[in-house]
Amino acid sequence: MRIGVSVNPGATTRPASIDQLVDQVATLARRGFDKAVFANIFGADALTVIALVGRVVPEIELETAVVQIYTRHPVAMAQQFLQTQGAHVRSTPV
User: Fold this and answer.
1) What is the pLDDT along the chain (94 residues), one digit of tens a residue?
2) Is 59 exposed, middle or buried (0-12, 13-18, 19+ CB in 10 A)?
3) Whole-prediction pTM value?
4) What residues have CB less than 8 Å from 11, skipping those under 6 apart?
5) If DSSP codes are grouped into helix, strand and coil, which group holds residue 36?
6) Is 38 exposed, middle or buried (0-12, 13-18, 19+ CB in 10 A)?
């Protein structure tokens, strides 16, 4: 059985910082959760958060719940999706 959890960056009185979100997801990974899910709410861009968190905590699967696509051009969304995916791939020195 795989278990995921929704991470709400604005659940407190102040939105969580990127460092707080990274720490939160790292804690979830250590506790055995398989997936962290982010929504585009409370001022946090889910794709940007996933790109940054995924570089630091690659052992957990990351997913979006809500992304505001109707306010963005499809080409801009495609570019952001590609950049988010690319952020997870770390280059290794030759």
Assistant:
1) 788 888 876 655 667 788 888 899 999 999 999 999 988 776 678 888 888 888 889 889 998 887 777 888 889 888 888 888 887 665 545 4
2) exposed
3) 0.75
4) none
5) strand
6) buried
